[in-house]
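tool_call: predict_structure(chain=1)
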Amino acid sequence: MLPGLLSVTFRSRSPQEIVAWAAQTGLAGIEWGSDIHVPPGDEARARDVRALTEGAGLAVSALGSYYRAGPAAKAGPPFVDVLATARWLGAPIIRVWAGTAGSAETDARLRAEIVADLRSAARLAADAGVRVATEWHAGTLTDTTASALALLREVDHPNLGTFWQPRIGDSVEAGVADIRAIAPWLGAVHVFHWRTAQDRRPLAEGETPWRAYLAEIRACAPGVRFASLEFLPRETLDDLQRDAATLVRWTAPAGKGAP
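tool_result:
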């Protein structure tokens, strides 16, 4: 497993700064966000960011899109533009969102539309050699493990998976159970440590849960390539240096420390 970074961690920073910071802190790849850094349909920007990333010896781990499957997708760029951008960027996987409301607020008709759209996206991306994965998030159909599992089974396409991140307030046991349940679909992991949404803590304070999560991923989803930092207590180089060093240490192969 490799340590990475989401560019949305530093929305106010340029791609050049983000690449430089990621490289100097020992991270291996970047998931580029489509909201600011790599907008859908902007071929020149996507190719420039790819060259910048790869030129620094880093991988493009994913395109973190804000494509909302279902009727809400009509309000944003079409999936074909998102897919084209992922190809220009060299992203092996596109992160998408399963709707705009939680599972309890989504009726059967709307859920069916989201399922159909995700299946269509998975098919289109498969033809282009790019994977698709849902964001694991409140306010979408992955807000509970039961709903997320049902969604993945309803879409029933081998090119659709999911990302994962811990739910604030869940026990370590609940997080490990999540990972075990979605292991066949797990594509990547977003790493952060919060006590509450307003209390973002240094990653090292989450060593007990994260050691358990990463061990479970290694055991039941060994194909997961990246565990990437998403949030920091402060969006500064100092905080990135500290938390990147922690993640690099945790993701190092057994018997090896951080470089």
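agent: The radius of gyration is 17 Å. Proceeding to next step.
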